[in-house]
Amino acid sequence: MFVGDGLRKRYGRSEALRGVSLEVADGEIVGLLGPNGAGKSTLAKIACGLVRPSAGAARVAGHRAGSPPARAAIGYLAELFRFPGWASAEEVMSLHQRLGGSTGGAAERAELLDLVGLADAARTRVAAMSKGMQQRLGIAQALIGSPRLLLLDEPTSALDPAGRRVVRRLLGEVRSRGVSVLLSSHLLGEVELVCDRVAILVDGEIVERGSPAELHTPRGIEVETGSGRRTYDGAVREDAPRIVAELVAAGESVYEVRVLASTLEDAYLEAVGERPS
Amino acid sequence: MSGRIESIAAARAVVGFALAESVRRRVFAIVVALTLVFLALYGLGVNFAFDEIERRTLIGSELIDERALAGSTLFGLAMFATLFLGAVLAVFLTIGVVRGDAESGLLQPLVVRPLGRGAMLVARWAGAALAAGAYALVVYALSLALTSALGDWSPDHVVLPGLALAFAVVIIAAISVLASVFMASTAQGIAVFMIFGAGLVAGLLGQIGDALDSRTLERLADVASYVLPFEALYQHGLFLLTSEQLGLTGALVQLGPFGGASEAGSGLLAFALAYTAAVIGLGVAAFARADL
To answer: Which residues in chain A are closer than 8 Å to B14, comparing Cβ atoms?
Structure first.
């Protein structure tokens, strides 16, 4: 659905992207992680045609990124966005339907506002909405016209835990409809929960990529016995039955066995180098 | 074909959005209030001026058509005020439509839609041009009606000066849209008003040059009217008010205080149209290349 090949972007003397190649398959949710300024937003903007790459090529649904058919295939929520304060949620949705050529009409507006939990706020002016409500409206706007690729740049940054759960549920819903998603977020736990694959960007380069499971590295096995907790560094999941059998044979009572693995946060901090952004 | 129809519908949506924004942000309400104040003061001025003419006789009045002199001078003031108010409206309707809206995050969700940047920019300009141009025509017509009713005077040409004014405002809207591609809102507003002021100053210089018979000043004004054709249209509109006035009255009214009335060549309309298209074309080309 999205193919970025050797993407580079230079802003004056600084290089935001240094040869990034990334694919998002049909129905796949790919998480983009990285510190501020790593190039996540630039990559999303190239995908939707807001920014032109200095080198490399990007294609959406087989079309050059930024071309009219490519734009027709995407839904986009920017990290920093604003809707006119004077407009109601219904008016914002209606405008985007007309701009996107959507024929969904009032039914689509009602369905999407309901999906993001704004069914009761259809007539509420944007100026009277909380930041979280505006962000959910932004997500609903991005879903207008049934896009085939959703580009979500920090979609949950202003949301409370309940709002984040709504977005997680929504991403599950769009995945079931076969929509591809490129999700940029700082919330590692969230990315871990919803993404099929993750790419970690640092200084404009992808330094790590894979499924969340692949990014977890084994850290040994921890066993709670009657005589206390024992840790077997270097042991992997397959070693667990043998370790338990040896302990039982030695007369130990085994209460709990845990396979230790690094979290996505560990993998992220390892890649980023624990430096604050 | 259906894609073309969708694009037109989307462009109309942008025009409607721009107009709705103006109405909801009370830009129109403020402009209407200011316009009513202006028209009330103008009506009062016209009334007093023509009353004065009725009551007394000037020395040399047999050589001068006092009513034409007063009417054209007062209506010249109305033309100036209409151009100014129209320019204010044109600038406010186009303030920040590109860089300003991009910096606030308003533009990005709109331009990723299939409509395209060029159509979006043209639609934003068209919306502003329609509103500001129509406004200029309405204020012109109301001023004309007041002058005619209270002073019993009408210009030699009734329709063309109004159209020239409206076109001048449309050009100012185009310049403002172009400026919005390169400048943030405040800088854009300042720049466009300075360009507007430069045009008026150039017109006054031309008037002074004409009075002093200074070829340099006249040439300067000529060049300025090419660079800023809204000024040439305004001057031509002023000229048309009294273009058939002869003798001393004709000479006096051509030296009116609100910029030099000056007859433009036959190519002004074509040049102004090409100029507007070039300004918008330049804006579209620059916008197409801009990173947002």
So the answer is: 99
* Cβ atoms < 10 Å from Cβ of A255: 10
Whether the CB of B116 is below 8 Å from some CB of chain A: the reply is yes
Q: Which residue has the higher pLDDT, B69 or A197?
A: A197
pLDDT tens digits, B83-117: 999 999 999 999 999 999 899 888 998 888 888 88
Whether A234 and chain B come into contact, CB under 8 Å, resolves to no
Distance CA B91, CA B174 (A): 9
* pLDDT of residue B258 exceeding 60: no
B15 inside 8 A of chain A by CB: no
| Total domains present in chain B | 1
Chain B CB within 8 Å of residue A136 CB? no
Binary contact (B106, A100; C-beta < 8 A): no
- ipTM value: 0.78
**Any idea of the CA torsion for B21, B27, B31, B32, to the nearest 10 degrees?**
60
pLDDT value at position A180?
93
By residue range, what is the domain housing residue B162? 2-289
